[in-house]
Amino acid sequence: MEPHSWTIHEARERLDNGRITATGLTRSVLARIEAVEPRVAAFNTVCADMALEQAAAADRRLQAGERGGLLGIPLALKDNMITQGVATTCSSRILKNFVPPADGAMAARFKEQGAINLGKTNLDEFAMGSSTENSATQITRNPWNLERAPGGSSGGAAACVAADMALAALGSDTGGSIRQPAALCGVVGLKPTYGRVSRYGLVAFASSLDQIGPITKDVADAAIVLGAIAGRDPLDATSSARPVPDYSRGLKDGIKGLRIGVPREYFIDGMDAPVADAVRAAIDTLKGLGATVREISLPHTRYAVATYYLVATAEASSNLGRYDGVRYGHRAMDARDLLEMYMATRDQGFGPEVKRRIMLGTYALSAGYYDAYYKKAQQARTLILKDFTDAFGQVDVIATPTSPTGAFRLGERTADPLQMYLSDIFTISINLAGLPGMSQPCGVDGNGMPVGLQLIGKAFDEATMLRAGWAFEQATAFHKAKPSL
Fold first, then answer.
1. Would the CA dihedral through 197, 7, 32, 62 be positive or negative?
2. How far apart are the C-alpha atoms of 103 and 201, rounded to whole Å?
3. How far apart are CA 266 and CA 290, in angstroms?
4. Residue 24: is it exposed, middle or buried by C-beta count within 10 angstroms (0-12/13-18/19+)?
5. Residue 230's beta-bridge partner residues?
6. Nearest Cα residue to 446 out of 268, 278, 284, 270
């Protein structure tokens, strides 16, 4: 078993007992990137020299007796998290040559803990998409079938972990952008509770929905990474001051008596039958491990897609107003005056999907339409949150499919934005409610592509969600399956 294929906890044991060095582990992962990246196209930037320098520094810390955490672990960052001295492009032409002067919270945490940053992974432009086909840099391919999409917007992060090009990666999730690509690529993706992880240095899409989280090879690794990145950050006013528990400690406590709710609204017409079958079988496995399962209702789920695409686009239209060609990023050079420069810069710099969402959001916020659209969406958001609050009065964890289908073919949905938006139909409610959610592999569809089981927890109760996921993982072998590249 090559080092690049290890989980974090497997590598952690070997690093701590001296059976491998951080440099040796990093060289193995970099060799894997060199071998398979040309086919998968998961990275916008690979920082090989920097990674080896960081690995050497980690080895010195290990030799001095330091142990645990992410020390010496090679990881990747989604290319919408700022990194000092390394391009942060958001896979957009408008930020093609932008090199931040400082680190965001996640890059800073990596350095502080001695993790190795392998580079920046591809995404749908400004995290707006569900297939990574909206990237202005390249199209990432699913390692399980190179003709199929890896999901999005964190498609590069999910693909690089599935292909063993990183032991784990950080993605961002605004409406499913960690969980959906994790499901389609057969890995674990966890969106924490809103405020659990700092968003400082995350390039904003929709500030009330965005959250950073881990994409890993198994649930135990998700617990490790979440523990390493969670906690209060004085540079992010929305981050929570709640203490961060040891997420790894309670994984093995079992789920006997755990109450699992299954919402009837998440098994719908149009779902692929093999996906529904795999998820129901996974729920039966949890029941067999001692959990109690009951049907619940989340009645306002039917409004989630419309609500999300009003709230998210409204916030995007505001957040993306900063890209004007004046302070940083691309600037149109042939404009005759300031207004023309603004317009030309944005026209040249933004892709079609970003423009579409800016226009939708600007319309929803405009005079005469604000009450009818944005205000109504916020009211519907409150009802969606109330559904979850009521449900969690009866159950401890909610189990659903992550995506209604397995990975679709590249190009299959690009001509129909609405069909693409529906890829996230089972994930967006969790962002609207600010709750934690996790996807983990639970089977395959009719094309042999991975299927994801989504577990949803109470606010700031990632520990129970992780415990249920770990119990399922120990009873099955889906997380051990690897694509043949």
1. positive
2. 7
3. 23
4. middle
5. 197
6. 278
Contact indicator for 138, 169 with CB cutoff of 8 Å:
no
Instruction: Decide if 212 is inside a domain.
Output: yes
Distance CA 279, CA 444 (A): 10
Number of domains into which the chain is organized = 1
- Token pair of 122 as six digits: 């591809």
Output the six-digit token pair for 184.
């389609």
With beta carbons less than 8 A apart as the criterion, state whether 125 and 134 touch. yes
Q: Would 422 be classed as within a structural domain?
A: no
**Is the Cβ–Cβ distance between 438 and 216 less than 8 Å?**
no
Cβ burial 382-418 (10 Å sphere, 16+ → b, else e): eebbebbeebbeebbbbbbbbbbbbbbebebbbeebe
Query: Residues with catalytic annotation?
Result: 78, 153, 177
C-alpha span between 215 and 32 (Å, rounded): 18
In a domain, 374, yes or no: no
Average pLDDT, the chain: 96
Give residues with Cβ within 8 angstroms of 50, minimum separation 6: 86, 117
pLDDT band at 416 (very low <50, low <70, confident <90, very high): confident
Per residue in 96-138, pLDDT (tens digit) is: 999 999 999 999 999 999 999 999 999 999 999 999 999 999 9
pLDDT digit string, tens, across residues 287-345: 999 999 999 999 999 999 999 999 999 999 999 999 999 988 999 998 899 999 999 99
Residue 63 contacts residue 77 (beta carbons within 8 Å): no
Domain that holds residue 169: 3-254
Would you say 276 and 364 are in contact if contact means Cβ atoms under 8 Å apart? Answer: no
Residue 69 located in a structural domain: yes
pLDDT at 399: 98
